[in-house]
C-alpha cells in the first residue's frame, strides 16, 4: 500500500514539473535506446554463437602474413594441399572470395525484364561443413564440383520465394544464368546469407549458388581469391590444429617454393593460420564495434550525470518536506523509497521510449553502416533488447536517483530545515554538483574531439583530387558472363554497339568503356619492362575503348590515346600512368618503351596519362597501364569478364536523364543483358568515403547530444546556485558590489568548472588520433594499413573541439550570470 502511494505521489510531482519530466524522459530514451541498440549489435556479432550446428567446432583457415587480422582468405593451391594432407578436420569448405553478379534472364522467371542476382561459388562440402541441410532437393555432388564438371545451381530461400513464388517443383527445372541453361538441384534453408564471411557491408546476399569446381586452370587459382572454412574433429582443439598447420608448412614450401617470393613490407612470409570462424567473420569490425560501444556508453554516462545533477537540485528543494516527514516519524528507508519512486518512474518511462529508439537505431545502423554484419538480424533481437533496457534502466535509476537521495538523507533534520529556510547552499550539495559538471565536460570534450577528428578526416579525403572528373558524368555497368562472352570478338562487338547507340543520344558529349573503374575493382597482374625482367612487380591494368579517358576526364600528358585503329591485328600498345613512368623509366621518355603484362603479351608505350587513385582516395597512385580492349585474346577476355563488370562512362550535358537510353542501348545489343548499375560518378567517389562520413556522423551525433546535456548541466547548476545564493548576492550588492562584478563572478564560476573538465578531457583525448586511425583504416585502403593523420589536422581538430566547448559553456553560464546581476538587493534581503 505504502509503495503504491509513493508512486502516486511521485507521478503527481512529475506531472507538476513537465519541463523536467520531458527533459529526463528524452535524455533517458536516447541514452538507453542508443546504448541498447549498439549492445544488441555487439552481442549478436561478438558474443552469440554462430547460427550453425556445433559452432565451436567451426574454424577459418587462412594463408596470410603474420599479424594480419583473422580472416578466411585462402589460395587455391594451398586449399588443395590442406584438403589432401591435413588430418585435424572432419570436413573442409572452400568458396569464392565474395559474391559476384550474374544475369538471370526473363525465361528463368516466366517473363519480365532480365535482372541481376548475386552468386556465390562453393565447394560441395561447404554447406555440409556448416551443418546445413537443403530446404528442397540436395546439395552439390562430387561430380558437379570437379573442374569441368556438369552445371548445377542451388537457389536461396528468398529468391525461391520472391522470384518463383515458392514453387515446390523448382527442383529439376532449368533456369538461364548468364545465357546458359542450368538445372536447379536444390533450395537452401531460410536465412543463409551469401556473404557468410564478411566483405562489403552493402553486398547483397547470394541468390544463386553454383559449384566452385576449383582447379589449377581457374584464373585465380594461385592468388588469395578464395575463402576456407573447416570443422574440427571431435577430439581436436584449435591449438592442436594450428600445430599441425605449422608442421605442414615446410612440406608445402618444398612443393610450392615460388609462393615465398612474395613478402610483407617487413620481410615476413605467408603462413597457415587457424582461427575460430566467428573470430574471422568479425575480424574487420571487432575493433570498430567495441569503440562505438564505448562511445555510446559514455553518452549514457553523461545522460545519467546530467540527470543526477538535475535531481540533486530537485532534492534540495524538497529538503524541508523530507525534514518534516522525518520529524513526523518517517524512517530513512521510507524516505529513500519515496525519493526513488520518482527515479523509478522516470527510468521505466525512459526504458519504454528507449525500446523504440533501440529498435529503430539497430535497423538504421545495419542499413547504413559501412561495416559488414554477417549474421545480425535486428528483428530477432527484440526480447534481448527488452532485457538490456531493463538492466540499463535499473543502472540509470541507481546513478541519477540514489545519489541525490543519499545526499539528502545523510544530513540531519535540523540541517535540512535550516538550509531550506535560509536559502543557503550546502557545501556538500555544491561540491557534488560541481563534480558532476566537471565529469560531463570532460566526457563531452573527449567525444567532441573524436567527432572533430573524424570530420576533419572526412573533409580531407573529400578534398583529394581523384585524378578524373566527377561532374556531369554517369556510369552504367553490365556483367558480360557466359559462353557468348568468352569470345573476345563478340564482347568487343557488343561494347561497340552500345557505345555507338549512346553516342547518338541527345545530351551525350563523350562515351567510352572500361573493365575496372577507378576506385572500384581492377585487375592486378605481374608486369615488367621488356628489357628488365628483374623489375617485375604487381601492376594494375585497365582495358579501355577509344575516348574512355576523354569521357572520364583523365588528362593525356604525352603521346597519343587509344584509337579505333588499334585492333587485334595491329601492334599492341599501352598507355602508362605518371607513376609507372617515374618508377620504371626515371629521367627518360617512356614513349617507345616496351612492357610485358601477365599472359597478355608485350605492349609498346605510346602515351602517358595522369595518375588516378585506384583503390581509395587515401592510397598512393600505383603503376597502371591502359590497354585497348580490342587487343585482348579470348582467354584473357574470359578472365576479365568473369571478374569485372564492363562499365560505360558517359559525359553528358547537365540535367539530362540517360537511364532509359542506356537501358534501351543495352537491350538492343543483348535482350538478356540487364543494367547492373546506373549512377553518377560522384556517387562512386562518395562510396569510397562512406566510412569516414558514417563515423563522423555518428560521433557528431553523440557529441552534439553530449554537448546539449553538458550545457543543460552547467546552466542548471549555476541557476540553482544563483537561486540558493540570492541573499548572499543581495548582501554583496548592498555592500557595494557592482552588477558587472556579480555577472563576472558567476560567469567565471561556470567557465572555471569548464576549464577543469577540459583539462581532464584533453588528457583523455590524447589517444583519440590513434583510435580514429584504427577505426577508419579498417575500411579505407592505404599501402601500410594506417591513415597517419597529420599533426596539423590533429591540432585543428582539438582546437575546433576546444572552441566549441568554450562557446557552449559561455552561453550556458551567461544566462544564470545575467540573472544574478539583475537581482534587486532590497527584495533579496526582504525575502528572508
Task: Tag the structure with descriptive keywords.
ABC3_permease_C; cell membrane; 26 helices; alpha+beta; ADOP; 832 residues; 6-stranded mixed β-barrel; 23 strands
Task: Please render the helix and strand layout as text.
Elements: H1 2-16, H2 18-47, E1 58-64, E2 73-74, H3 76-85, E3 89-96, E4 100-104, E5 115-122, H4 126-129, E6 136-137, H5 142-145, E7 153-155, H6 157-163, E8 174-177, E9 180-187, E10 208-211, E11 226-232, H7 238-255, E12 271-276, H8 277-281, H9 286-317, H10 319-327, H11 332-368, H12 382-409, H13 413-422, H14 427-462, E13 473-478, H15 488-503, E14 508-515, E15 523-529, E16 537-544, H16 548-552, E17 556-559, E18 573-577, H17 578-584, E19 594-597, E20 601-609, E21 624-628, H18 634-643, E22 646-652, H19 659-669, E23 677-680, H20 681-688, H21 690-724, H22 726-734, H23 739-765, H24 768-776, H25 791-821, H26 825-830
Parallel strand pairs: 5-10, 7-9, 16-21, 18-20
Antiparallel strand pairs: 1-11, 1-12, 2-11, 3-11, 4-5, 6-9, 7-10, 8-9, 13-22, 13-23, 14-16, 14-22, 15-16, 15-19, 17-20, 18-21, 19-20
Amino acid at each position: 500500500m505504502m509503495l503504491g502511494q509513493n508512486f502516486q505521489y511521485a507521478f503527481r510531482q512529475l506531472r507538476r514539473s513537465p519541463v523536467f519530466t520531458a527533459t529526463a524522459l528524452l535524455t533517458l530514451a536516447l541514452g538507453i535506446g542508443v546504448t541498447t541498440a549498439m549492445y544488441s549489435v555487439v552481442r549478436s556479432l561478438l558474443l552469440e554463437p554462430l547460427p550453425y550446428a556445433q559452432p565451436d567446432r567451426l574454424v577459418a583457415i587462412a594463408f596470410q602474413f603474420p599479424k594480419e587480422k583473422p580472416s578466411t582468405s585462402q589460395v587455391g593451391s594451398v586449399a588443395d594441399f590442406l584438403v589432401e594432407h591435413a588430418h585435424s578436420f572432419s570436413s573442409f569448405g572452400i568458396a569464392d572470395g565474395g559474391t559476384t553478379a550474374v544475369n538471370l534472364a526473363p525465361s528463368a522467371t516466366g517473363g519480365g525484364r532480365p535482372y541481376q542476382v548475386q552468386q556465390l561459388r562453393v565447394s560441395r562440402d561447404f554447406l555440409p561443413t556448416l551443418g546445413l541441410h537443403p530446404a528442397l532437393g540436395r546439395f552439390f555432388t562430387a561430380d558437379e564440383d570437379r573442374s569441368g564438371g556438369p552445371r548445377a545451381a542451388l537457389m536461396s530461400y528468398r529468391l525461391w520465394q520472391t522470384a518463383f513464388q515458392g514453387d515446390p517443383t523448382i527442383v529439376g527445372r532449368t533456369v538461364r544464368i548468364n545465357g546458359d541453361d542450368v538445372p536447379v538441384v536444390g533450395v537452401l534453408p531460410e536465412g543463409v546469407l551469401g556473404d557468410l564471411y564478411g566483405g562489403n557491408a552493402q553486398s547483397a546476399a547470394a541468390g544463386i549458388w553454383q559449384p566452385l569446381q576449383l582447379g589449377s586452370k581457374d584464373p585465380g587459382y594461385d592468388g588469395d581469391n578464395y575463402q576456407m572454412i573447416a570443422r574440427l574433429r571431435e577430439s581436436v582443439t584449435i591449438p592442436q590444429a594450428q600445430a599441425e598447420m605449422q608442421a605442414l608448412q615446410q612440406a608445402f614450401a618444398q612443393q610450392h617454393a615460388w609462393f615465398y617470393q612474395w613478402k610483407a613490407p617487413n620481410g615476413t612470409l605467408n603462413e597457415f593460420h587457424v582461427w575460430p570462424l566467428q573470430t574471422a567473420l568479425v575480424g574487420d569490425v571487432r575493433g570498430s564495434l567495441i569503440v562505438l560501444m564505448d562511445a555510446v556508453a559514455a553518452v549514457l554516462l553523461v545522460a545519467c550525470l546530467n540527470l543526477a545533477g538535475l535531481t540533486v537540485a530537485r532534492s534540495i528543494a524538497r529538503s524541508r518536506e523530507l525534514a518534516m516527514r522525518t520529524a513526523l516519524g518517517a524512517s530513512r528507508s521510507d524516505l529513500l523509497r519515496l525519493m526513488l519512486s520518482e527515479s523509478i518512474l522516470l527510468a521505466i518511462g525512459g526504458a519504454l521510449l528507449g525500446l523504440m529508439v533501440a529498435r529503430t537505431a539497430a535497423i538504421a545502423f545495419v542499413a547504413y553502416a559501412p561495416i559488414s554484419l554477417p549474421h545480425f538480424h535486428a528483428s530477432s533481437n527484440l526480447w534481448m533488447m527488452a532485457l538490456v533496457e531493463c538492466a540499463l534502466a535499473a543502472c540509470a535509476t541507481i546513478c541519477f536517483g540514489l545519489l541525490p537521495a543519499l545526499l539528502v538523507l545523510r544530513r540531519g533534520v535540523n540541517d535540512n530545515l535550516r538550509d531550506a529556510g535560509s536559502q543557503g547552499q550546502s557545501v556538500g550539495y555544491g561540491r557534488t554538483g560541481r563534480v558532476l559538471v566537471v565529469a560531463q565536460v570532460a566526457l563531452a570534450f573527449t567525444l567532441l574531439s573524436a567527432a572533430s577528428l573524424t570530420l576533419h578526416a572526412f573533409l580531407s579525403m573529400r578534398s583529394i583530387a581523384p585524378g578524373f572528373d566527377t561532374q556531369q558524368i554517369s556510369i552504367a555497368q553490365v556483367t558480360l558472363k557466359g559462353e557468348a562472352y568468352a569470345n573476345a570478338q563478340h564482347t568487343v562487338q557488343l561494347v561497340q554497339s552500345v557505345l555507338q547507340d549512346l553516342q547518338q543520344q541527345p545530351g551525350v558529349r563523350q562515351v567510352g568503356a572500361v573493365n575496372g573503374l577507378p576506385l572500384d575493382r581492377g585487375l592486378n597482374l605481374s608486369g615488367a619492362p621488356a628489357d628488365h625482367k628483374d623489375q617485375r612487380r604487381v601492376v594494375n591494368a585497365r582495358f579501355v575503348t577509344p575516348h574512355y579517358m576523354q569521357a572520364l576526364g583523365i588528362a593525356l600528358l604525352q603521346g597519343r590515346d587509344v584509337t579505333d585503329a588499334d585492333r587485334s591485328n595491329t601492334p599492341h600498345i599501352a598507355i602508362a600512368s605518371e607513376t609507372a613512368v617515374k618508377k620504371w623509366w626515371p629521367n627518360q621518355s617512356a614513349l617507345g618503351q616496351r612492357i610485358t603484362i601477365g599472359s597478355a603479351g608485350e605492349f609498346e608505350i605510346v602515351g602517358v596519362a595522369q595518375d588516378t587513385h585506384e583503390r581509395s582516395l587515401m592510397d598512393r597512385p600505383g603503376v597502371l597501364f591502359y590497354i585497348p580492349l580490342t587487343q585482348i585474346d579470348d582467354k584473357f577476355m574470359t578472365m576479365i569478364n568473369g571478374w569485372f563488370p564492363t562499365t560505360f562512362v558517359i559525359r553528358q550535358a547537365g540535367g539530362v536523364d540517360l537511364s532509359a537510353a542506356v537501358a534501351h542501348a543495352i537491350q538492343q545489343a543483348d535482350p538478356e543483358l540487364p543494367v547492373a548499375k546506373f549512377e553518377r560518378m560522384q556517387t562512386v567517389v562518395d562510396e569510397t568515403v562512406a566510412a569516414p562520413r558514417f563515423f563522423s556522423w555518428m560521433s557528431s551525433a553523440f557529441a552534439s547530444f553530449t554537448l546539449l546535456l553538458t550545457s543543460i548541466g552547467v546552466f542548471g547548476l549555476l541557476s540553482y546556485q544563483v537561486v540558493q545564493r540570492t541573499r548572499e548576492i543581495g548582501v554583496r550588492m548592498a555592500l557595494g558590489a557592482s552588477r558587472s562584478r556579480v555577472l563576472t563572478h558567476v560567469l567565471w564560476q561556470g567557465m572555471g568548472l569548464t576549464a577543469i573538465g577540459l583539462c581532464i578531457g584533453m588528457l583523455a583525448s590524447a589517444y583519440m588520433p590513434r583510435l580514429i586511425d584504427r577505426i577508419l583504416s579498417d575500411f579505407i585502403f592505404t599501402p601500410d594499413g594506417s591513415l597517419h593523420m597529420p599533426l596539423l589536422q590533429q591540432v585543428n581538430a582539438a582546437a575546433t573541439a576546444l572552441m566549441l566547448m568554450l562557446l557552449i559553456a559561455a552561453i550556458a553560464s551567461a544566462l544564470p550570470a545575467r540573472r544574478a546581476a539583475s537581482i534587486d538587493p532590497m527584495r533579496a534581503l526582504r525575502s528572508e
